[in-house]
Structures
1.
Amino acid sequence: MDLINNLMLGFGVAFTLQNLAYAFGGALLGTLIGVLPGLGPVATIAMLLPSIYALDATPALIMLAGIYYGAQYGGSTTAILINVPGESSSVVTAIDGYAMARKGRAGAALAAAGLGSFFAGCVGTIVIAAFAPPLTELAFKFGPAEYFSLMVLGLIGAVVLASGSLVKAIAMILLGLLLGQINTDVISGVPRYSFDIPELTDGIGFVAIAMGVFGFGEIIANLGQPAEKREVFTKDVKGLWPTAADFKHGFPAVLRGTALGSILGVLPGGGALLSSFAAYTLEKKMPMKPGEVPFGQGNIRGVAGPESANNAGAQTSFIPMLTLGIPPNAVMALMVGAMTIKGIQPGPQVMTSNPELFWGLIASMWVGNAMLVILNLPLIGIWIKLLTVPYRFLFPAIMVFCSIGLYTLNNNAFDVYMGAGFAVVGYAFYKLGCEPAPLLLGFILGPMMEENLRRALLLSRGDWFTFVSRPLSGALLLAALLMVVVVMLPSIKKKREVAFKDAD
Amino acid sequence: MKIKSEKDFWSGLMFIVIGAAFAWGATNYSFGSSARPGPAYFPFGLGILMSLLGAMILFKALTFEVQGGDKIGPWAWKPLIMITGTVAIFGWMLPHMGMVVALPILVVVAALAGDEFHWGEVLANAVLLTIFSWLIFVLGLSLTIPLWPSFLAN
């Protein structure tokens, strides 16, 4: 059995005392830094890259993988605890995770995120070991038209992130796409909507929007409510652990999320990110079991599904990097950088020329995931204690960490001003009943979507039918259309349920 | 004409205006053709589409009765102005006055925006957070954050 031999080789490499220590160190550093708002995995790895030069290739990559997972989990922690998604993939986690925290169930949410991620990480490791070559074939079939259609599907899926009006949610996605247009056009190099402000030619930072709208906007909305009506966190914190019912509801969600994430993660460019959105969409559309909390009010499936998908996706996104040398996201690009510094050319030959490195890395991803669970389950108790701090102490602290985080993005006050501006925007959205999560997804996918649209049109010489006539792209668009129909269905279904209840 | 849903009326208007503004802004850039789309191609289409959706929301807000009128309710001016103001001031002060001055001011003004304010508590919180931030960001992560006012540091 090749698979078992290869994994044995990998675990042989990963289970040396030195490499275990690097995996642990990476996971620890990643978690600690990822918990600070504004410092995501990219910033963390970029900061630590110089100290990694000194290491050998294998321990260096093992440590990077640890930091990556740690920072990702740290980002989910802030999403659950203070509603500030540390990075794009935890936007979804914030919706139900923060709702759970407000109801005193932060422990259950954090544990579900941790355990779900660990499970997804285990499956992802096996998927990489078994299917790396065939999955690479799948990624090859994706041209610009397919990517564009996939993103349309993803954006339509994002509509379910909002619980209110469908049209408003789509308008918010478009607003996000438009905000993403404030940048320098990648093809012609023309700065757009920048008003001659040099900082704007690089685009608005994701973190500035996330912190302004979710972090500061939420604080303003909370303070705007009279003190007696305001109940940010309940005093009655219910246990650190998920209940038996949580496990019963959560586990199928973890399975579905893992499957989705493993497949979507292979696609370079936002695959892992889309998978967390797709998983949330899927969970929201699954029939509710009796005794479940509605989505948006703290359903554990809304945390477990996306978190597992996200981690499985993060795991399988190593496939295009290791086999094709194409980094699927910024973190992976830094990893490719680290590999080349060490004199290893990423690409299909890594598997044969450096088998210890390849399989060692895969095994160490699993080790990194295991470290995370060992590290974070005890930490949950500390995080929960944090929420029992009265809100009048907590919100200035959130503001301090967000503001410093904003400043350190580019060592520039401009991002802090942007954060303040988006605080006003976030409060206006709150007042107007516009839910901001779809906007954030639109903002992230906007530039990628435009690039692929224009490339696809270029290739087809301006023929829009290319999106429908290419089978894979057409199928994705059809799925998007079906999704619109399905999203509109619940209102019909709900009425039917009411009718049935009356008949009883 | 009567507004049936205040929230939808104003958000519809917001989408129309922002969409139109982006579409109008796009006219400054080259459109290209559909075979060679230029920088204006995508934002123009998006802007028009968003205005159309805004119009739909506006139309709905004026025709369909909503229970309670979906009132926006009073704006929380005090926290809105103080929270955003203090963040912006912090942004200006940090490079000039350093963390030791800017951070306590941020904490105190933010706390003033809340409805429970005790000097002792707030000052203790400010000192604690400043020390904590110094430990994490400057000592731990060695980020380049100015610590003291620039006229003292030089």
Note: Chain B touches chain A through 73 residues (CB under 8 Å).
2.
Amino acid sequence: MSPTFRRYILTKLGWYLIALAAAVSLNFFLPRLVPGNPVDLIVSRFLQGGGGGASASKTYQAFITQFDLDKPLSGQFFAYLVNILHGDLGQSFSLFPARVTTLISQAVPWTLALQLPAILLGWILGNVLGALAAYKRGAFDRNLFVTALAVSSIPYYALAIVLLYVFAVAVPIFPSAGGYSFGTIPNLSWGFMVDALTHYLLPFLSLLVIAIGGQAVGMRSMAIYELGSDYVNYATSLGVSDRRVLGYVFRNAMLPQITGLALALGTLVGGALITEIVFSYPGIGTLLFNAINANDYPLIQGVTLIIIVAVLLANFLVDLAYGVIDPRIRAARSGER
Amino acid sequence: MLMRARFLRTALRSSRFNTSLVLVVVVLGFAILGPLLTGHDPNAVVGGVNSSPAAHPPLGTDNFGRDELTLLMYGTRNSLEIGAIAGLVAVLIGVLVGTVAGFYAGVVEEALMGVTNVLITIPAIVVLILLSIALGSRSAVTMGLIIGVTSWPWTARAVAAQTSSLRTREHIDIARLSGSSGFGIIVRDVIPYILSYLGMAFTLQLATAVLTEAALSLLGLGPTNTISLGILLQWSLLWEAVRQGVWWTFIPPTFFLSVVSFGLLLLNSSLDEIYNPRLQGGAGNCA
């Protein structure tokens, strides 16, 4: 590892730690801008359902200690940081004894199973289509570009709603809700897999189509810039075959597209929240939606923290990869500071 | 003047620009004139529950018997209003931070760009979720403000890059030699040069903000007591309109969201094409 490279990584790491600190502080302080404390809210809802008297005041005290609400705000923040470092995100209000980390780790695999294949496949197909459009130009390019722009500007949840209506309600080919049929228990049997797959296909497709559109638009404009550059003109004037020139163009245009992949991977956890809500799919999005409706602050803050960490981690890994792949960036950055 | 004439000629020859202009004007007309012409209160009950489109309520009614067409007009208007407030706030903060950072090199630039880059890495949707929860009830104006406050860093970064490339231009040197203050130079000699870019940034921010409002509404954090395109969609999910096949309550708002977003993005990309002739079609060098 060269000293410039080490310095590049350390500078990046420093910035990401600052971003993480800022995000964690926002995560803690923003919901606490609410006047009154969340426990009052929860307990008042408890009391509406009967009970009251001595047991209510006991519950209240238990909650207060549980969530450190008897301490001043700075003390609460400190306790929060210590807990996070121990991997403890507290307990859910709405599903009370359940730990936030347990709820999140049950939801995350569903979200990843939807998002990871959609992002990767969308990236590959989008890049190939975009490069092809830039190379062919003419009618193919015009049609593909406008279609891709249209698809990528449709909000992902809008496509999800339309697909749900068309293929699960109007023409009921696919099931309309959930990650598997109601009443079945997730297992590794053949029957369950097929059942899960039929529930999976629509939300997956709605994400894939949007991903292809976005990546194709980006790749097309990158490839067009590359096609007009000096080295392409020079190579063509030397009589180098189109196929070979295209190879160079593709490689150079790919580099910025890695950022596109990185940004997409950053949205791995938080990018399909509403798709899951639309399809009632058991993932992070549905978990967050239920938490918001129940004013379940610990669960909301747990989910937002996971989304933040995923985004920051993805961005940091990309910066690392960039440093390895592109020496120009490394040189420019170390010269800058 | 000559440049403007040439701009107009290129623009009107571009079918992409014309299409996007028609889309944007139609949506704006629907959103602004609609509520003035209908004379209906959007919350008034005009017919049965979930009655399908017919001659009288042309787009049918919703779960409470309200007129869908009127709801759609008010929803589009409020969504665009939220988007416009957010876009204005984002562009204003972005220009302020970006021009100051780009114009004054050194510590000021480092500090402002440092803050901007830190904020860019924190996902805006998370900050919006946390802010919305903290605020409890939110008017359309509040929604616009909080979306704008979380979306300026991209504009600031781009404006800073453009300003710092302008910094070494001769006309700026002359202004500096003739004793103009830094602020005066930014207002008179920097901002006019990036105005076309600012217009594009505003269309982009507006489009994004309309979609962000809808996303927040679908999460259950939309504007309170306000009809917006996102709120219309949230209602149809809450009342299971999609699974009951009540398509007239969710297809029109979905369509309008897509048209707003598509029209503005197309406008943005066609303006980009007009300003950067290299992107214009048919000029491929290879093949």
Note: The first helix of chain A runs from residue 3 to 29.
